[in-house]
Amino acid sequence: MTLIEAASATVTLPALKEEQAQKFVLTLSCKEQAGIVQAVTTFLFERGFNIDEHQQFDDSLRETLHLRTAFSGSPNYTPAMLEEEFAGIAGRFDMKFSFHDQTPKRVLVMVSKFGHCLNDLIFRWRGGSLGGELVAVVSNHETHRAMAEAAGLPFIYVPVTPDTKAAAERRLLELVDEYEADLVVLARYMQVLSDDLCRALEGRAINIHHSFLPGFKGARPYHQAYDRGVKLVGATAHYVTADLDEGPIIEQEVIRVDHTYGPAQLSTVGQDAEALALSRAVRWHCQHRVLKDQTSTVVFR
């Protein structure tokens, strides 16, 4: 080997090792107990992994621990292999846990006549900052076909009437399977989903609501706010549940206005808030930063 070849080899070898490293994320929730973090870090160390990012939240009121650890190392592992080997630790601490690799989440977007959230999602997806991969757009109107197709996305028109609602929802589930969608995003989709469809999409459907949510009624409003996990007052991105607009909140956004704002200006500002809250919620979900906790969420930003 010549000196030039040797120099070249010493430069390229580290790059090769870096390229081969596989990245994973572990998320877990369980009751607070001593030794949880040590068990996790020891498990990763024994398998030659490096911890790239670690966040945890000890909820002393609910006596629970929530944890997200991003780590990298051997490409010979898969999430299923890690879950199998971690099962013993998880059983000891009664953990609810999952491992994820870098495979992008596949996102199916549903929209009606308002296109600002769809446009924002497409912009962030094409710019590489959305965190997931848009795979199709479904709508009960033809309004945004050109927008979707200009971005190279399939546009599927599924009209909805009171008589066809059940058939339309069956078609939606078929499309979720057809496009292997991990997440369904209701980007101002102006149809109320049936209880059955909400249950079928539990934990993998996010909605944006053009209002402050939730509306706390009756006594002890701050206790209700705690139970629901309010993050901010403003446009609200939340998981879809059978309770209309009452799902666990992921993100909220507010933009201040004053007496000079008329209806048109208020609508524009509100649409900005919706787009911001929804895109953050989608990104955090796709990056496995959102852990559901009863009726609220823990978000590791």
Question: Describe it for me?
Answer:
By secondary structure, this protein is an alpha/beta fold. The chain has nine helices and 13 strands. The chain has a seven-stranded mixed β-sheet. Strands 2-3-1-4 form a four-stranded antiparallel β-sheet, covered by helices on one side. It has a two-stranded antiparallel sheet with strand order 12-13. Helix 4 (116-127) packs across helix 9 (263-286). It is globular, with a radius of gyration of 22 Å. The protein starts with a helix and ends with a strand.
Outline the fold blueprint.
Elements: H1 3-20, E1 22-31, H2 36-46, E2 50-59, E3 64-73, H3 79-93, E4 96-100, E5 105-111, H4 116-127, E6 132-139, H5 145-150, E7 155-157, H6 165-178, E8 183-186, H7 195-200, E9 205-212, H8 221-228, E10 235-239, E11 249-253, H9 263-286, E12 290-293, E13 296-299
Parallel strand pairs: 5-6, 5-8, 6-7, 8-9
Antiparallel strand pairs: 1-3, 1-4, 2-3, 9-10, 10-11, 12-13
Helix pairs in contact: 4-9
In short:
By secondary structure, the protein is of the alpha/beta class.
